[in-house]
Write a structure and sequence with these properties.
Helix content: 25-40%
Radius of gyration: 35 Å
Strand content: 15-25%
Number of strands: 11
Structural class: alpha+beta
Largest sheet: 5 strands, antiparallel
Number of helices: 8
Shape: elongated
């Protein structure tokens, strides 16, 4: 490829019917370096319509050829893209939310404007990061930790550095997981009275739980065991319907719907009256349990279908109703 910052000095120009324009290659300059003036030409480069050739000074090997300069530029820029087609960021700066000064962008006269204040204090706190393509690492090129305002109390409380669990808390979490098989909500309710000054977020507890499970090789969870049990029953009863719901973003199990063969038969007979009820936060996992109740000829309630869900959003209920339709091919 061409050297960076190659400088050409035109020393001869022909007419339209004569030889192509001829330029002198006077050398390659790095950024900020000045080019010395030379009286004698060092090397000539011919610029033609479709072919550009040059041979660096001091080499006798064949020159590198490009059919088109634009094509070489396109290949260079394409190499800077990631596999997904996004341009790779080589440098990034993280600054304080109070950085900079307030600049009003108003067209009204100044006497008719109402200045309500701004949180911008021209804070200089920032960190510059650089991404190296050689070893695919990120390193800090500059950091300024001085600030000119009072730090928000909530930031000091919710920042990641202040939410780490010490060994005593981690040991309590480990005991509840290995021996108690508790979930994150139950663990939080157990630990909060023991450590009243510690902030317990479900996200932090979930991360700690997964870390302990990897270290102690605790395989699976109650949800995965339930799914395996239902799939095993489905092998014994091929008419049985089992459908898991996988979150596309986190790739985690977020719901299970199932109907046994007897429930499918009951639905086909008593689908004219179907009651749907949902129990919320009545189990130790705080997961909604969706139940479909059928009414038979004797006026008795019969369980027609059931589903465990991780939330009570409209999308979750639409998914459950769609599963009943796909399984029975009948609408209530």
């Amino acid at each position: 490829m061409f050297e960076d910052n190659i400088v050409f000095d035109k020393f001869m120009e022909y007419g339209p019917n004569e030889n192509p324009m001829e330029y002198e290659l006077v050398g390659a300059a790095s950024e900020g370096e000045e080019i010395e003036d030379r009286d004698e030409p060092v090397e000539s480069v011919h610029l033609e319509d479709e072919l550009v050739e040059y041979e660096p000074v001091g080499t006798s090997q064949s020159s590198r050829n490009f059919e088109n300069i634009d094509e070489s530029k396109l290949k260079y820029h394409r190499s800077q893209l990631t596999a997904s087609g996004d341009r790779m960021a080589k440098k990034r700066t993280y600054a304080c939310e109070n950085a900079g000064k307030y600049k009003p962008n108003k067209t009204r006269p100044l006497e008719h404007q109402r200045f309500r204040g701004s949180k911008k204090t021209d804070c200089k706190w920032h960190v510059n990061l650089s991404h190296s393509e050689i070893n695919n690492s990120v390193h800090i090129t500059f950091i300024d930790l001085e600030y000119n305002h009072v730090i928000n109390v909530d930031n000091a409380r919710f920042a990641t550095a202040f939410r780490k669990f010490d060994e005593s808390i981690m040991s309590e979490i480990e005991r509840t997981i290995v021996f108690g098989h508790c979930d994150a909500y139950m663990i939080r309710n157990l630990l909060q009275p023991l450590f009243p000054n510690q902030l317990f977020l479900i996200q932090d507890l979930s991360n700690a739980i997964q870390k302990i499970k990897r270290e102690k090789q605790v395989v699976g969870s109650d949800a995965s065991h339930l799914l395996k049990l239902l799939l095993q029953q489905q092998k014994e009863d091929p008419v049985m319907f089992v459908q898991p719901l996988i979150n596309a973003d986190s790739n985690r199990l977020s719901g299970i719907f199932w109907m046994t063969s007897s429930q499918i038969m009951l639905w086909s007979r008593y689908y004219d009256v179907v009651l749907h009820d949902n129990t919320s936060r009545t189990n130790k996992y705080n997961f909604p349990l969706s139940l479909f109740i059928l009414v038979d000829n004797d006026g008795k309630s019969r369980l027609g279908a059931q589903a465990f869900l991780s939330d009570e959003t409209q999308e979750s209920y639409e998914w459950v109703l769609q599963q009943t339709l796909d399984t029975t091919n009948t609408e209530p």
